[in-house]
Amino acid sequence: MRVLSVINYKGGVGKTTLTANLASELAFQGNKVLIVDLDPQTNLTFSFLMVDEWEQNYQDRTIKKWYDAFIDNDQDFNLNGLILTPQRVNSRLRVLKSEGQVDLISSHLGLIDVDLELSAKLWGGSERTNRRNFLIVHSRLKAGLQQLEDKGYDCVIIDCPPNFSVVTKTAIVASDSVLIPAKPDYLSTIGIEQLQKRIGELVSEYNSKLQHDNNRDEFNPISPSVKGVIFTMLGIRNGQPYSALQQYISQVQRIGISTLTTTIRENKTVYATAPESGIPVVLEDVRNEQTYLTVRKELEQLTAEVIKLVLS
Ligand SMILES: Nc1ncnc2c1ncn2[C@@H]1O[C@H](COP(=O)(O)OP(=O)(O)O)[C@@H](O)[C@H]1O
Ligand SMILES: [Mg+2]
């Protein structure tokens, strides 16, 4: 079971859209995929569920519960109880004769408060207690996902919030790989350098705390691998990207991060309707328009690249 985080602390760069489409295409190809919405803005959740449906059936079964159980010292709670199987995308998979599946752990607006409470857990004890608390808090999601080992997931994809909060850090600690969607512009590339630095610092801090005391039996060193930047929302004119894409690719590579070969073009019309349909663009009932097919081809190409980078 591979765990991939989709992360960037800028909002509106396509994290959620890519997560939804990547998961759906992987499922279409026969994989059993779990997606985890860690963003209190809940956009991924409502890309697959209708608001009414969530309010009536699921709002007490969100990822917030997993962190709450920890804050309340409820040892018996299992992450398994939070997994939902969104109906619309999975029906679509059956229509397409796919044997894959998309499951979801949904998010909750109240996840914002969880972050403060988790932070509070990190301080106030002896140095040794604080070190231990750091490891327990940050490995919270990793521990939860380990409970799912026998569920047969090929892949878990975590859609991160646009910040570097404790909850985001739990995603990084839980991950084998990290993917960074970004727009090709100057400020975004600066942001990527910061992000890379902070991921590195978190990994060092976690592994160094683990060296102390007798924590090594209980926790393992982490080494999430930043697989690269995927450029999204490219403006296209006459079939060609009109921003100076090559310049941003070079800038990212200078920082020491790879860039994916696939790029995702901007297309407001095609991407706007998908969240309400509950079926991401890549699996939507084909409208046989050229732009639609072009968009879809990019998403399929992205999936192929991610399979190579992350799953094989
Ligand atoms: N390639 C694209 N072209 C046009 N609009 C897009 C594209 N990708 C995403 N969007 C739209 O942009 C907005 C932000 O995307 P989203 O995936 O939610 O970003 P993030 O999760 O990084 O905040 C959403 O309204 C989404 O529908
Ligand atoms: Mg998002």
Search tags:
312 residues, alpha/beta, Rossmann fold, six-stranded parallel sheet, two-stranded antiparallel ribbon, 13 helices, 8 strands, globular, binds adenosine-5'-diphosphate, binds magnesium ion
**Major sheet: size, sense and barrel closure?**
6 strands, parallel
CATH structural architecture: 3-Layer(aba) Sandwich
Helical residue percent?
A: 40-55%
Instruction: Please list the strands of the largest sheet in the order they lie side by side.
Output: 3-2-4-1-5-6
Shape: globular
Q: Which assembly state applies to the chains in this document?
A: single chain
Short description:
The protein is of the alpha/beta class and 312 residues long. It has a single domain, classed as 3-Layer(aba) Sandwich (Rossmann fold), CATH 3.40.50.300.
Walk me through this protein's architecture.
The protein is built from 13 helices and eight strands. It has about 300 residues and is α/β, with parallel strands linked by helices. A six-stranded parallel β-sheet has the order 3-2-4-1-5-6, sandwiched between helices. The termini are close together. The mean pLDDT is about 90. It has one domain (about 1-310): 3-Layer(aba) Sandwich (Rossmann fold). It has helices spanning about 15-30, 45-50, 50-60, 65-70, 85-95, 110-120, 125-140, 140-145, 165-175, 185-210, 245-255, 270-275, 290-310, and strands at about 1-5, 30-35, 100-105, 155-160, 175-180, 225-230, 235, 240. Helix 1 packs across helix 13, helix 4 (about 65-70) packs parallel to helix 6 and helix 10 (about 185-210) runs parallel beside helix 11. The chain binds adenosine-5'-diphosphate (ADP) and magnesium ion. The site of magnesium ion (MG) has 5 residues, from helix 1.
